[in-house]
Write a structure and sequence with these properties.
Layout lengths: L1 E2 L4 H22 L3 E5 L6 H6 L7 E5 L3 H14 L4 E6 L4 H14 L3 E5 L17 E8 L13 E9 L5 E6 L17 E2 L10
Parallel strand pairs: 1-6, 2-3, 2-4, 4-5
Antiparallel strand pairs: 6-7, 7-8, 8-9
Helix pairs in contact: 3-4
Length: 201
């Protein structure tokens, strides 16, 4: 997965999207989350608003991407975590294949958040063995009838998936249980090609 752009808003949206998914896995499995990155710019209260409690996260920092990927692989093979999140700027197809195999061996889901390295290139353009590729960005929230800030909204794009078609849809940001929501007056979602089915959770 990646942010739609290198802006702080889209980067935060992608981070909170990952946090919400991880929170759902943690709730189902009753286990902790392993989150590893080369630079820590996470904001614990923000993660908690997406349902991911600080006490449920084990953080690990690596100096380089290859160290982050190695720690993620070890955590996946360990099999005791509800979910593993790894933030990197570069991961080749071999590295993503190793993560996929480790996730399968440990029966643990993994979210690889590819941070932007260059302004003119989407991180998802690199070869990858990932089952799905997601791009997350911000969209304007719905206007309120009174002064204030509405629930954040994201444009969630499934750029690629195995044996399926890409699609995009607008969602309201994760609540404090990690659940996403369709806006009350959601327009028809855009499908890139063909038909794609969504299972609402």
């Amino acid at each position: 997965m990646a942010a739609s752009s290198p802006t702080l808003n889209d980067d935060a949206a992608a981070t909170l999207f990952a946090a919400g998914i991880a929170a759902r896995f943690a709730g189902r499995r009753g286990a902790d989350i392993f989150w590893t990155a080369s630079q820590f710019d996470l904001y614990a209260p923000g993660l908690e608003q997406s349902g991911l409690k600080p006490a449920a996260i084990l953080y690990a920092q690596g100096m380089k991407d290859n160290i982050v990927l190695a720690m993620a692989e070890d955590a996946l093979r360990d099999g005791s975590f509800a979910c593993v999140i790894a933030e990197v700027k570069a991961a080749d197809q071999t590295a993503t294949r190793r993560l996929q195999l480790a996730a399968s061996d440990g029966s643990t889901p993994v979210l690889l958040y590819r941070r932007h390295r260059r302004l003119d290139r989407c991180p998802l353009s690199s070869l990858s063995s990932a089952m799905t590729r997601w791009r997350i960005g911000c969209t304007p929230s719905a206007p309120l009838p009174h002064p204030g800030v509405g629930r954040a909204r994201w444009l969630v794009e499934l750029v690629r998936q195995r044996n399926g078609n890409p699609f995009s849809l607008e969602l309201e940001a994760c609540d404090d249980t990690g659940r996403l929501a369709l806006p009350a007056a959601a327009p028809d979602r855009a499908i890139a090609t063909g038909r794609a089915a969504i299972q609402a959770a």
